[in-house]
Amino acid sequence: MNRDVLSTLSIPRKFYEDLFRETDGLKKRLERKSALGLCSGRVLATIFMEPSTRTRLSFQFAMTKLGGAVVDFGPLESTSTAKGETFEDSMRMIDGYSPDVIVVRSKLEGAARNAAEICSAPVINAGDGSNEHPTQAMLDLYTIQKTRGKIDGLKIGLMGDLAHSRTTSSISYGLDKFNHVTIYYIAPPELQIRSEVASLLKNVKVEKTDRYENVINDLDFLYVTRLQKERFNNTSEYEKLKGSYQLNRTSLSQFERLPFIMHPLPRVDELDPDLDKLPAAKYFEQAKNGVFVRAALLRRIISN
Amino acid sequence: MNRDVLSTLSIPRKFYEDLFRETDGLKKRLERKSALGLCSGRVLATIFMEPSTRTRLSFQFAMTKLGGAVVDFGPLESTSTAKGETFEDSMRMIDGYSPDVIVVRSKLEGAARNAAEICSAPVINAGDGSNEHPTQAMLDLYTIQKTRGKIDGLKIGLMGDLAHSRTTSSISYGLDKFNHVTIYYIAPPELQIRSEVASLLKNVKVEKTDRYENVINDLDFLYVTRLQKERFNNTSEYEKLKGSYQLNRTSLSQFERLPFIMHPLPRVDELDPDLDKLPAAKYFEQAKNGVFVRAALLRRIISN
Amino acid sequence: MNRDVLSTLSIPRKFYEDLFRETDGLKKRLERKSALGLCSGRVLATIFMEPSTRTRLSFQFAMTKLGGAVVDFGPLESTSTAKGETFEDSMRMIDGYSPDVIVVRSKLEGAARNAAEICSAPVINAGDGSNEHPTQAMLDLYTIQKTRGKIDGLKIGLMGDLAHSRTTSSISYGLDKFNHVTIYYIAPPELQIRSEVASLLKNVKVEKTDRYENVINDLDFLYVTRLQKERFNNTSEYEKLKGSYQLNRTSLSQFERLPFIMHPLPRVDELDPDLDKLPAAKYFEQAKNGVFVRAALLRRIISN
User: Is the pLDDT of residue C27 over 50?
Assistant: First the structure.
């Protein structure tokens, strides 16, 4: 049985429905501290070859709260990577230590799939370059489901640096498994969703625009993403664009009704903190859901 | 109920008395390995935005020995701070993951208070710039109490870089809650205790001098601190002063009777290792007490 | 009783025999997840002052799987070492926190012995400069024993940068405790085994050569090591030599029968990945054995 989690492309709707129900149940148990024995004696290996806070910490909190242990590969400069070891050798070595699950982030597209081919332990892709970040999509969809009670029929705007965003690829493939969903890709032409992503969507209706003002009144959710400075080859292009998609109370005051606002975080300038107290702001709740959704996923993988 | 530990300014004498009694009891249990269940299922989040060994490790040892788990935010360059995330957003995110206690160190004064305003979890200040380091004061006072059986009536010299030292601020406010204590601030004028610290002391008698030789015969304890190179704007000023307060067997041999010597550690040049075997040298015992005092504090906060 | 593990020089044959039997038993229990309680309530402190992946992670996996906890000193730049603290003070501090075992790696020869003199907790040398790495030798010898069912009478080639390798020193002293073993040191003259190592061998037969082709047909095992770039003073010398000892299918195709190939890993260019699937390639199994052997060692030290 394949227990790897590499991409949302092949994850069916039923998987989300089951996972969300399990997340609800586990959340209650975690709040009562009664979930503790679920992963005792189990070890999660976390390997982050790019900076991460939210994903790494939420996996560590999830595993710890289930009573399991975490062994972290550590920052690159403290590891054999500094001595010239290949990714393949590092993964094979870690797999040899028999972790129950391996979580891996890399700046290279396909790294997690590569790892999964090498490892006998289940591998979770925690972000591979601009490609995918499937557990982010799971917590995003969970947040949408909890906020609106459904995903079918919703209109979701994905805004910002879509060209370099693994988050928006993964959530797009996820939304595509639900019915009558419309995705509005909101970005300047040079940062629009990659055609290889859009071409894989079969079910959702797709709209593209370069201005959120054009579509905001139609949206149920506006999902904002960071311009990923580290993925630009050219700093001046980054500087020119970064101001174009900044939301704040002033810029939003012209609209009668706001969609729910989401963001995978971290944010830089694109969401002003003056929005944080609006009932529409769901991004901190979204981050919080990361622990519960990932705990449910870990438990499911480990008990399979 | 406020369970944050941000400053010693507002901590009453009774708090120390209770904490020290609890520390004594817990120390015995830790030595017998029978304290293990006290924090099982609990998670401590440690966030060190400045280098730390003693404080970070002693909190991690304390929590681990109580049977709890630790999730560390990790070095700054591995986190979202490297992507431009604000301190406020990082704290809000971590708090969303529901740790049982958050320990935070920052180079910015007021950072822990800022964190406590954002977080629903209890926040312990593990050092905020030159401002305060309250758990250091707790273990310092515990060490004084265990060494002399009392704090009331003692004469304590605080020497070194008082201007930049959060340690001496916090212990000063702590000593101020006891009776008939005299604090001798021993430093050159440019490194003397900040007037905003001294002005908050109500109970202790305060003396200032620039030479320890003037007062050493009166002291029960001489508490030495490191010149904090990283807080000087000007390296030449640092170089000029660093030699002025170096203690060794030769410099101390002229005195008939030595006070107990304390130091928050790490030391650089200010305490020669030739002093380490003197019965008066209490600084390694002081460091060791850090685990017990912090364990007692964590347990108290978590069981409240 | 001395529970430190600093060098293989003084470890008798009986120690290995017992350890290997305990490793076999523990391996079965770890695979059934029934070893979990063996170190519960115990804390391992890991201190790596040089980059490490395999050694650090395998100790962390070993302790975690025994149900114990690990506190890691962290990367140097996050610690008091960055503030100028001496190694001696750091070790004394950590020992004061009462870990059950301390594992230490340093770039300085003798660092672990120095630590053991300071610490009351048992100290395991996880590599001290070019000197020794005794637990690597234990897992190497375990791998040889499991592969051939014996160590006595075998012919072992140690190849590569023997002059700078702590691994080959430690395994040499280990092999020297068995009977009728021949060690072939295979290296150019400038990288040959140090005379102070060879002079300590009493029991093994020693041969030296600069070409593996001369001896490969006689070998039971060919143990390859990395040129340790970080130990060369002169980069051009490193570049000149690194190609001389690269093994791949082509270079090995001329030999009728291959010895088992071992390597402490990480490898850089010296072993081509095209060898990995050969039945003779034992280096990943060797790495995997690290967790089991170190778990058996930790358990033995802790239960003594």
Answer: yes
Burial letters for A110-136: b for 16+ Cβ neighbours within 10 Å, e otherwise?
ebbbbbbebbebbbbbbbbbbbbbbbb
Say whether C73 and B53 touch across the interface (CB within 8 A): yes
pLDDT grade for C1, boundaries at 50, 70 and 90: very low
Say which amino acid occupies C69: A
Of the candidates B266, B300, B225, B262, the one whose C-alpha atom is nearest the C-alpha of residue B5 is B300
Nearest to B265 by CA among B244, B288, B247, B245: B288
> Alpha-carbon distance C194 to C179, whole Å?
22
Does a structural domain hold residue C3? no
- Nearest beta carbon to residue A94 from set C33, C57, C226: C57
Query: Which candidate, A193, C81, C119, places its Cα nearest to that of B54?
Result: C81
A221-256 as b/e, with b when 16 or more CB fall inside 10 Å? bbbbbbbbeeebeeeeebeebbeebebeeeebeeee
Q: Say if residue C173 is in the same domain as residue C274.
A: yes
Tell me how many domains chain C contains.
Answer: 2
Instruction: Please tell me whether residues B161 and B98 are part of one structural domain.
Output: no
Residue with tokens 């515990």: B142
**Smallest CA–CA distance from A68 into chain B, residue:** B69
The CA distance from A84 to the nearest CA of chain C, in Å, is: 6
Question: How far does chain A reach from its first CA to its final CA, in angstroms?
Answer: 9
pLDDT digits (tens, 9 = 90+) for A186-216: 998 889 999 999 999 999 999 999 999 999 9
State whether residue C149 sits within 8 Å of chain B by CB. Answer: no
- Quick one: which of A159, A189, A152, A196 has its CA closest to A174? A152
Q: Which residues of A touch B43 (CB under 8 A)?
A: 61, 64-65
User: What does the alpha-carbon distance between residue C98 and residue A76 come to, in Å, rounded to a whole number?
Assistant: 29
- Is C103 in a helix, a strand, or coil? strand
DSSP category for residue C145: H
Residue B221 lies in a domain: yes
Chain A: residue whose CA lies nearest to B70: A64
Residue in B with minimal Cα distance to A32: B41
Pick the closest to residue C91 from C71, C118, C73 (CA basis): C118
Q: Please give the Cα distance from A66 to A39 (Å, whole number).
A: 5
Q: What is the ipTM of this complex?
A: 0.92
Residues of A in contact with C46 (CB under 8 A): none
> Is C166 contained in some domain?
yes
Contacts of B80 in chain A (CB under 8 A): 51-54, 265-266
Here the CATH number for the domain that contains residue C103 is: 3.40.50.1370
User: C268 and C151 in one domain?
Assistant: yes
Cβ–Cβ below 8 Å for B41 and A52:
no
Of B43, B78, B96, the CB nearest to A51: B78
In three-state secondary structure terms, A250 is helix
**Judgement on whether residues C244 and C299 belong to the same structural domain of the protein:** no
Q: Which residues 175-204 on chain A approach chain C with CB closer than 8 angstroms? A: none
Q: Say which DSSP state C247 is in.
A: B
Are C155 and C214 in a shared domain? Answer: yes
Residue A174 lies in a domain: yes
Q: Closest to A83 (Cβ–Cβ): which among C36, C51, C57?
A: C51
Considering the domain architecture, whether residues A263 and A168 belong to the same structural domain is answered as yes
Q: What is the 3-state secondary structure (H, E, C) of A168-206?
A: HHHHHHHHCCCCCCEEEEECCHHHCCCHHHHCCCCCCEE
Q: 0.80 exceeded by the pTM?
A: yes
Interface contact A284, partner B, CB < 8 A: yes
**One domain for residues A125 and A145:** no
- CA-nearest residue to B99 within chain A is A61
Q: Does C40 touch chain A (CB under 8 A)?
A: no
For residues C279 and C293, membership in a common domain is answered with no
Cα A253 versus chain centre, distance: 29
pLDDT tens digits for range C197-237: 999 999 999 999 999 999 999 999 999 998 777 666 778 87
- What residues make up the domain containing B182? 134-283
